[in-house]
Design goal:
mainly alpha
């Protein structure tokens, strides 16, 4: 392993991941503090409704959003390197148009569908009005253009700082709601203000950086006109977007399914377990963000990128093993911070934690498929795994309750890893057929 660190690309992946990961971990801690305060202030049912309202808005955004940041990096990055400011502007304008259109459509559909689906998802009628207002966050929650702009302009420092805003404000608002005894309304308002403030700041930072480079007009939305000037833009957008959106909606959709089958109280316990797993899995997210730009510069016909994928997967899997040990030793006391009424989530967490090892060890697979231009294979794998997972979740949750839901989560992640591994192995065997990959997209 000492030899691995002689590889400059490997060091760059870890450096970039550490840069973003430092603030992400701090933000995750503040997010957990907000949940702990809500858990103490609210009963199990009301706490579950709070998580379901947030999950509904996230799910609506995930189902309708475009991964516009990928588009910006795919077309804008090479354009800026060759001094083609117009193409870079077109990529940002197209991304902005996609975000505006999909965000408004997602919000409208979410608000129309909510009265019909609320009771099925465990959101009761007294909380329906606030849930409808919360849906107005969908356009900003689902917009990825400012993130793409800051990555394009190499302002990862600003992204790292911005990551702290929403969780810190959410924790502060939760503290006020807890101290003031403001109940469900206080917490939903705290969640809303934190989300909108973080999103507005992200847009403000992107606008400032574009103006500094005399590209302020790049945020003027465009669709069909600018897309015609970007080769195969629509094909790229649909292929990569569907795959990533399917992955992004796993958490919110599964939480809604659990709420619909088992009720809001079990959904709250499920939310605690998945939130802890999500926080524990942040290193893999950061490694992905560091892994992608480096691997796209390498020759896929050589063994270097494939070895890099194995090495980063081993490092990530080792981190996951340490996290699992920490969960086994200290998970129960930690969940106790939410309140004794939520200790039942510990058993669920100890079951679901095995999915963390699978997810973190296998994170390079999708990026490797993008590297060799096999976006459609990644989409097929993601879609098939999502269908299998949701089917298993519905069946096992009905049959075995929360234990079944936790088992389905593990099986779903294992299915996704297997479906990704098969085309990756095939691509590796045919690696000599691939020319050096152009800069493209990956998961984020």
């Amino acid at each position: 392993m000492k030899h691995w660190f002689k590889d400059g690309v490997f060091r760059a992946v870890l450096r970039n991941a550490g840069y973003l990961g430092s603030t992400k971990i701090i933000g995750a801690i503040f997010g957990l503090i907000a949940l702990i305060l809500a858990g103490h202030a609210l009963d199990r049912v009301t706490f579950g409704v709070l998580t379901l309202v947030h999950a509904y808005a996230l799910g609506a955004g995930a189902l309708t959003k475009f991964q516009s940041w990928q588009l910006i990096l795919r077309y804008g990055g090479p354009a800026l390197q060759r001094g083609d400011a117009r193409t870079a502007r077109d990529s940002i304008r197209f991304a902005c148009g996609l975000d505006l259109t999909s965000g408004l459509a997602g919000m409208t559909l979410a608000m129309i569908a909510l009265p019909l689906l609320a009771t099925r998802f465990g959101i009761d009628r007294p909380h329906l009005a606030l849930a409808l207002i919360y849906c107005t966050l969908v356009p900003t929650m689902s917009a990825a253009t400012p993130t793409g702009v800051l990555r394009l302009l190499d302002r990862f420092d600003l992204l790292a700082q911005q990551q702290l805003v929403t969780p810190v404000l959410r924790a502060a608002g939760a503290g006020i709601a807890y101290a003031g005894g403001l109940g469900f309304v206080g917490f939903i308002v705290a969640w809303y203000i934190a989300d909108i403030a973080g999103d507005i700041l992200l847009w403000a930072l992107a606008i400032r950086e574009l103006r500094r480079r005399d590209m302020g007009d790049a945020l003027r939305p465009g669709l069909f006109g600018v897309a015609r000037r970007l080769p195969d833009a629509w094909s790229f957008v649909w292929t990569t977007n569907i795959a990533v959106s399917l992955n992004a909606c796993w958490g919110p959709i599964s939480n809604l399914i659990v709420g619909g089958i088992l009720g809001p109280a079990p959904a709250g316990l499920y939310k605690i377990a998945t939130t802890l797993l999500d926080s524990a899995g942040k290193p893999a997210d950061m490694l992905t963000k560091g892994f992608y730009p480096e691997i796209m510069r390498l020759d896929p016909s050589s063994q270097h990128p494939w070895r890099l994928g194995i090495r980063t997967g081993i490092i990530s899997g080792g981190i996951a093993l340490l996290v699992v040990i920490v969960i086994l030793l200290g998970g129960k006391p930690f969940i106790g911070l939410f309140g004794h009424k939520y200790l039942a989530a510990y058993g669920l967490l100890t079951l679901m934690m095995f999915s963390l090892m699978i997810e973190m060890a296998c994170f390079p697979l999708e990026s490797l498929l993008y590297m060799v231009g096999r976006q459609r294979a990644a989409l097929v794998a993601q879609a098939a795994a999502t269908i299998v997972y949701l089917a298993i979740l519905s069946v096992l949750a009905h049959a075995f309750g929360l234990t079944g839901a936790g088992s389905a989560y593990v099986l779903g992640n294992a299915t996704l890893a297997l479906f990704m591994l098969v085309p990756v192995l095939g691509s590796y065997r045919r690696r000599s057929d691939y020319a050096p990959a152009p800069q493209g997209s990956a998961t984020g």
